Amino acid sequence: MSDEDYDSDDSTVFETNVNFDASDTEEEESDTDSTDEDENFIHTPLRDPTRYIRLLKVQSAKKGFMPCCTIRHFKKDEAPDYRALSYCWGPEEYWEIEVNDAPFGVRENLQDVLEHIAEFQYYKKGYNITRWWWIDALCIMQDKESEAERLAQLGIMRSIYATAVETIAWLGPGNRSTTRAMKYITQLPLSTRKNMSDDTMTIANDDFCDDIEETFARDPRFAKAIDDIFTREYWERIWILQELAVSQNTTLVCGDGWLKWDQLVEFSINVAIADFSERRLRQARRKVMEKQPVWLISKMYRKSQSSTNGFSLATLIYLSEASKATRSVDYVHALLGMVVRGEGLRMKPSNTTKYGCETLCEAIRVMLKDMPSSKSWSEAKGSEARRKAKAGHHKPLSKSSDIRGRRKSCKGISCKTLQIARKMAAVLYSGSTLYHIGRTEQSMVFYRRSVERRRPER
Fold first, then answer.
1. Could you read off the pLDDT of 358-376 as tens digits, one per residue?
2. Is the domain of 153 the same as that of 265?
3. Residue 188 CB: number of other CB atoms within 10 A?
4. How many CB atoms lie within 10 A of CB 387?
5. Sign of torsion, CA 16 133 237 385?
6. Which residues form the Heterokaryon incompatibility domain (predicted)?
7. Which of 71, 240, 331, 362 has the most CB atoms less than 10 A away?
């Protein structure tokens, strides 16, 4: 790969092969959101939050203009083609945008995205691009008075992302190095394609190492750019686990750079099994490995759809240990859409409590019921998990009305209920294989924090 390949102009962000649907122009006029007496934008409740969704359209604008949006209600199974946004909300500093001709406050990170979309559309007039978007902060009512509607919408979140024509994962503003690095990743000789034998995979991975190190020799900033991409706050958000796993077509965007999510997953797997000689590249490899659960969950989830070994709630709590959430209930709610077996299937955001501690206690009780069906279960592990479940300030297994009353005023953090849930999951799954690559000469066995090369027993 030449320097010219690495330095060439970047492809256009959001320009994908999505067909323009005539229904994009057919808005449902009877269901619109409105303004209040002070002329601020307010949401109108959905007719049925389990069957209807809001979609927004961003008006095209030059760089620097305030984003202007239009929001409409649609019956979910009759909605036009739309993109879904996956992003990190960021600090509570609000910037004004315009929604349905009225002012509305959004956080800075979302404002950056909306400006990016508006500018792209302005300079790409005439392109057949899908202009409807689903963005949680604008399409779900976030006020406390609308909690029932919000929980109902969270319950169909998996379907919202799964039926989007594309999910855009916004990592935040980029720079020249990250843009070049993302383009370069799309051009690397990756080695984990289906039906590849292990010896082919090993040779390909050697080529991968050589190519990476040649690039690093030409431009030492490449390793720093990889660091930058993998240390973004985006990767810490627990909701992205579901958003990336269930979406059928995901594009990662960092400023003006972009690449497909599947390409980044393949790149990450190759980096994980690589043996770099350069110290700076080994450091970058550690950053990639720290995010291993995020990029492996997508592969594991898709594989689990046709397997009896799909995700249980306990598996997901174990894998999401490093993830963060603003609301403590989201440590459970954000995972429910990926549960495909066990008692966790019975849990829905709309039928759990709104209290973090009680919801986490319910998750602990679910994990205990699922234990015997876990392939990593043993009597010793079961005993240790039960012992941990009985601990904690608010005793997750207690049905006492007094204890339940205390849970209602607790988020489940300071009382260590979240910590107990994660320790239980670790007892059940620590040391368990997450993912395999290869079946002949050698296999790569992935754990939550490490990768091991194995030769099969003969």
1. 999 999 999 988 887 666 6
2. no
3. 18
4. 11
5. negative
6. 82-243
7. 331
